[in-house]
Amino acid sequence: MNTIQPHFSPGDQMVDRDLFRSAMASVGAAVHIVTTDGAAGRAGFAATAICSVSDTPPTLLVCLNRSSSVYQAFKENGVLTVNTLTPSHTVLSGLFGGKTPMEERFAAARWLKGETGAPVLADAAVSFDCIIDTRVPSGTHDVLFCRVVMVREGQTDDVLAYHQRRYHRLGQPSLLEG
Ligand SMILES: NC(=O)C1=CN([C@@H]2O[C@H](COP(=O)(O)OP(=O)(O)OC[C@H]3O[C@@H](n4cnc5c(N)ncnc54)[C@H](O)[C@@H]3O)[C@@H](O)[C@H]2O)C=CC1
Ligand SMILES: Cc1cc2nc3c(=O)[nH]c(=O)nc-3n(C[C@H](O)[C@H](O)[C@H](O)COP(=O)(O)O)c2cc1C
Description:
Blueprint: H1 17-24, E1 29-30, E2 32-36, E3 43-47, E4 50-55, E5 58-65, H2 71-77, E6 79-84, H3 90-96, H4 102-107, E7 111-113, E8 119-121, E9 126-138, E10 141-153, E11 159-163, E12 166-170
Antiparallel strand pairs: 1-11, 2-3, 2-6, 4-5, 5-10, 6-9, 7-8, 9-10, 11-12
1,4-dihydronicotinamide adenine dinucleotide binds next to helix 1 and strand 5.
Family: Belongs to the non-flavoprotein flavin reductase family. RutF subfamily.
EC number: 1.5.1.42
Pfam families: Flavin_Reduct
């Protein structure tokens, strides 16, 4: 009788953290600034770990490190806006990427107020204003499932991307398309 022998015990095996990061650096992604405001104050961070989950109800997921200085504000406010960046926001992304005081981060751009009260970046490629429906802890991060209550579309197709630890311009058609 043919039996399939498992090559590993699934329990506790995993690749090294640095190998994982190095592999993930090969996966390009759009860059966003995720913002919140409310009783716990205004906060924002740069993010690539964002993805569309469902269109009914319209849902995005955002992965947020629990050790980040902004974590508590997002948890308590319960709302956020995902602002998708353009290449003109490369410096802004660096400011929201950590360490910079919150007032300095927000002073570097023009903001509007979304329906939830979270800051909307005036010249974003697109913004999704959301209510955080569910928080699921996974490893070092919380996965935030966010219901989209308002969308604001920008004037550009150019999107800022992050690949191999560097910023790039997204939005040009593939060469195959001619
Ligand atoms: N998902 C996340 O939390 C991300 C965090 N970062 C943070 O920004 C800084 C600079 O990052 P890089 O220049 O890209 O070099 P890096 O070597 O720290 O990260 C390379 C890639 O690994 C992934 N990654 C990095 N940190 C992660 C984390 N804590 N959890 C899950 N995935 C992670 C991301 O896809 C990132 O582009 C680092 O402090 C990094 O932790 C950057 C990208 C995503
Ligand atoms: C390009 C880029 C993408 C990032 N993506 C994420 C992400 O998806 N999730 C996350 O929790 N942190 C991400 N970070 C890190 C946060 O932006 C950073 O931890 C946050 O600004 C908080 O920093 P602070 O603790 O110094 O305030 C990213 C940083 C950069 C530069």
